[in-house]
Design a protein that fits this description.
By secondary structure, the protein is an alpha/beta fold. The protein has 10 helices and 8 strands. Strand 1, helix 1 and strand 2 form a beta-alpha-beta unit. It starts with a strand and ends with a helix. It binds phosphoenolpyruvate. Phosphoenolpyruvate binds next to strand 8.
Length: 247
């Protein structure tokens, strides 16, 4: 059975003053909550301080993307080794905003995930369909294809996390229906079973897309939903902890 992961994604939000939210979240997550992990992925500028503030708590801190290489002439980029050195234990790869804004293909995402594993941190591999792809009835085909192409070679089931994030639900307030989430997560689980066999059951599959305290209970109750990737509602400790409390 997969562990549950409640993960926040701050995106390009947060100045040093926002780190009070990290302290509040770190104070609200409990190591005694069995099989449920909490994580906040922050901008690279805040990572080291966020990790320091979370050190004595059960809160994990992660990055939002990484380069495929360990080091070198890539001005402005951050490697997975740098994230690990700054205190990250997870990194998001293949978020739809990175795929759209930076032309990150599934092949690149697979290399980023491999880079995360090389650095000893867990990649959260994001996949999701656009509204047009859903409207044309191709959502399952598109998203399972993306997943297959985004998985790093040679990874074990214990070392990866998947996030299903319909692009049309991210930051819009439009949440996928429980039925659509159920159908997609079942399809993703079978796809993972083709690659990892029975061990695929250990892989957390998160739902992301306008998850809020008032809809989290229903989404997290879906059979193959093992947590959430939460953007807007992770910026405030009270909202994030309210979602965490539902897990
Ligand atoms: C996200 O950033 O991955 C996300 C799901 O954002 P939101 O929760 O704001 O839709």
């Amino acid at each position: 059975m997969a562990r549950t992961l409640i993960a926040g994604n701050w995106k390009m939000n947060g100045l040093r003053a926002s780190l009070v939210e990290i302290t509040a979240i770190a104070g609200g997550v409990t190591p005694a909550k069995e099989n449920v992990e909490a994580l906040i992925c922050v901008p690279a500028t805040l990572l080291m301080q966020a990790a320091d503030q979370a050190r004595e708590s059960a809160l994990n801190i992660g990055g939002e993307t990484c380069h495929t290489n360990e080091k070198g002439a890539h001005t402005g980029d951050v490697s997975a080794e740098m994230l690990a050195d700054a205190g990250a234990s997870y990194v998001i790869v293949g978020h739809s905003e990175r795929r759209a804004d930076h032309d990150e293909t599934s092949e690149i995402v697979a290399s980023q995930a491999a880079a995360a594993l090389r650095a000893g941190i867990t990649p959260i591999i994001c996949v999701g369909e656009t509204a047009a792809e859903r409207d044309s009835g191709k959502a399952i085909e598109v998203v399972t294809g993306m997943l297959r192409d985004s998985l790093p070679e040679g990874a074990s089931a214990e070392s990866v996390v998947i996030a299903y994030e319909p692009v049309w639900a991210i930051g819009t307030g439009n949440v996928a229906t429980v039925e659509a989430v159920d159908e997609m997560h079942n399809a993703l689980r079978s796809c993972l079973a083709d690659v990892y066999g029975a061990a695929a059951d250990l892989i957390p599959i998160l739902y992301g897309g306008s998850m809020k305290p008032d809809n989290a209970g229903d989404l997290l109750a879906v059979k193959n939903v093992n947590g959430g990737l939460i953007g807007g509602a992770s910026l405030k400790a009270t909202d994030f902890l309210a979602i965490y409390a539902k897990a």
